[in-house]
């Protein structure tokens, strides 16, 4: 049994490390909890005290394996099936009917939902049960993305094995349809497991390893562990991952008040992405800048960048929070050259005040009058998408291909992109 105590100095050091590693603000009243949980890791490694464990994390863990155990130790994983039932009633009675109506109007027959702090999987599988029971027979594609920072919880979600006590809140009519007996426990059936895609994600620091849009995002009982600046940044990022007027579900003790104006209330701890209002007319002329000869431009100041693209592709990259953006015009170059151009654009945006994980991209161009132009454009667009994925930059819109080049106008402060067909001068 560890006899050493967690000193004031050690506690502050671990507080800083937790914040740097996971973005979690560990309150002073969590000191006893931290000492208990880290004490198990100190003993497992055969170290003498907490100071030795801290030094091991900082310099004796080159693979990062113990850093992962450290993060797992400090995360809190309270969850259950159908927790906060009104959220699942709203999903069934409002979100899914809107998705069906969208499909009837010619939209995609698809439902995408993100369980953004899925813990051991109960929330994600609850969502999947509702979605499958309502939509599967109608031929809808269902995709539930589930993420968490705790690798041990993700392993449990992957296994999908739960006790009788854990299944107590699953409606009786759903249990035999979606679970099979596994000894004294129950296991998620393969057809339900196939709907859930698991990822390890640090919500504060990571570039998300998937793209939007989602019809709904569940982020419940999580933001209480982040400081207010981190909360505000996170909600702005989540807004860019929602489709149209998609829904955000948060925990019963949480609120978006004074954090963001991107959402409007839609129910008890349910918010809807606010529909954009009419564009405000600007007084005077917009500052207009054309791409220079090197075909790369970023700006700290609000400007409109004009370019003609096709079969070249314009990669318009911006940070919606820092309100800085830039354009790289990509042509008939190797994949490595395009990857270098995207990395250079991202690096210069960060120098101008952007945050790497917040960067978003819009692609335009790749068209032309001849099949050869369009083939070249498609190849360039594919390389641009791969380079953006490599850089961890999510793509929010694409306008690729077509029978002509495009004239684009990109507004760096808002990320707005306007496109129209380019008509070459006559005569």
Blueprint (SSEs and pairs):
Elements: H1 8-22, H2 31-45, H3 50-59, H4 65-74, H5 85-104, E1 110-115, H6 122-135, E2 141-148, H7 151-159, E3 161-162, H8 175-178, E4 179-182, E5 185-188, H9 190-193, E6 196-200, E7 214-219, H10 228-239, E8 242-250, E9 263-267, E10 270-273, E11 288-290, E12 296-299, E13 304-309, E14 313-319, E15 324-330, H11 335-351, E16 360-365, H12 371-390, E17 394-400, E18 406-411, E19 416-421
Helix pairs in contact: 2-4, 5-6, 11-12
Could you explain the architecture of this structure?
By secondary structure, this protein is of the alpha/beta class. Helix content is 35%, strand content 25%. It is built from 12 helices and 19 strands. It has helices at residues 8-22, 31-45, 50-59, 65-74, 85-104, 122-135, 151-159, 175-178, 190-193, 228-239, 335-351, 371-390, and strands spanning 110-115, 141-148, 161-162, 179-182, 185-188, 196-200, 214-219, 242-250, 263-267, 270-273, 288-290, 296-299, 304-309, 313-319, 324-330, 360-365, 394-400, 406-411, 416-421. Strands 6-2-1-7-8-10-9 form a 7-stranded mixed beta sheet, with helices on one face. It is globular.
Which range does the strand content fall in? 15-25%
The parts where pLDDT drops under 50 for at least 5 residues are: 278-285
Helix proportion: 25-40%
Nearest-integer average pLDDT: 88
The biggest beta sheet reads: 7 strands, mixed
Please, what is the CATH homologous superfamily of the largest domain? Vaccinia Virus protein VP39
Q: What is the number of beta strands?
A: 19
Shape: globular
User: Total domains, how many?
Assistant: 3
How is the largest sheet built, in terms of strand order?
Answer: 6-2-1-7-8-10-9
């Amino acid at each position: 049994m560890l006899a050493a105590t967690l000193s004031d100095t050690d506690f502050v050091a671990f507080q800083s490390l937790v914040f740097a590693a996971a973005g979690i603000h560990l309150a002073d009243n969590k000191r006893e909890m931290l000492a208990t949980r880290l004490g198990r890791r100190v003993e497992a490694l055969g170290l003498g005290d907490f100071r030795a464990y801290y030094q091991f994390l900082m310099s004796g863990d080159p693979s990062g394996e113990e850093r992962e155990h450290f993060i797992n130790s400090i995360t809190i994983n309270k969850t259950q099936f159908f927790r906060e039932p009104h959220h699942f009633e709203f999903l069934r009675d409002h979100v899914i009917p809107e998705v069906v109506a969208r499909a009837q109007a010619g939209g995609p027959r698809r439902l995408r939902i993100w369980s953004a702090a899925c813990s051991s999987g109960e929330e994600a599988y609850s969502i999947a049960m509702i979605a499958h029971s309502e939509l599967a027979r109608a031929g809808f594609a269902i995709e539930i993305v589930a993420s968490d920072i705790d690798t041990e919880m993700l392993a449990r979600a992957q296994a999908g094995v739960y006790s009788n006590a854990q299944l107590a809140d699953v409606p009786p009519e759903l249990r035999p349809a979606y679970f099979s007996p596994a000894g004294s426990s129950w296991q998620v059936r393969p057809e339900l497991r196939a709907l859930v895609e698991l990822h390890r994600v640090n919500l504060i620091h990571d570039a998300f390893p998937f793209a939007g849009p989602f019809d709904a995002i569940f982020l419940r009982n999580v933001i209480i562990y982040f400081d207010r600046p981190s909360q505000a940044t996170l909600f702005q990022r989540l807004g860019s991952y929602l489709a149209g007027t998609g829904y955000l579900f948060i925990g019963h003790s949480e609120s978006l008040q004074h954090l963001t104006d991107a959402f409007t209330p839609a129910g008890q701890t349910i918010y809807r992405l606010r529909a954009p209002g009419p564009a405000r007319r600007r007084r005077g002329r917009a500052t207009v800048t054309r791409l220079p000869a090197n075909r790369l431009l970023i700006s700290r100041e609000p400007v409109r960048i004009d370019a003609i693209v096709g079969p070249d592709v314009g990669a318009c990259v911006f940070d919606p929070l820092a309100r800085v953006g830039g354009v790289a015009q990509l042509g008939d170059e190797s994949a490595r050259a395009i990857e270098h151009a995207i990395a250079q654009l991202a690096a210069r945006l960060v120098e101008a005040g952007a945050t790497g994980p917040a960067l978003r991209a819009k692609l335009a161009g790749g068209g032309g009058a001849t099949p050869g132009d369009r083939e070249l454009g498609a190849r360039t667009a594919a390389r641009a998408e791969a380079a953006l994925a490599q850089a961890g930059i999510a793509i929010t819109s694409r306008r690729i291909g077509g029978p002509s080049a495009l004239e684009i106008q990109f507004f760096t402060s808002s990320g707005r992109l306007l496109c129209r067909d380019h008509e070459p001068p006559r005569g």
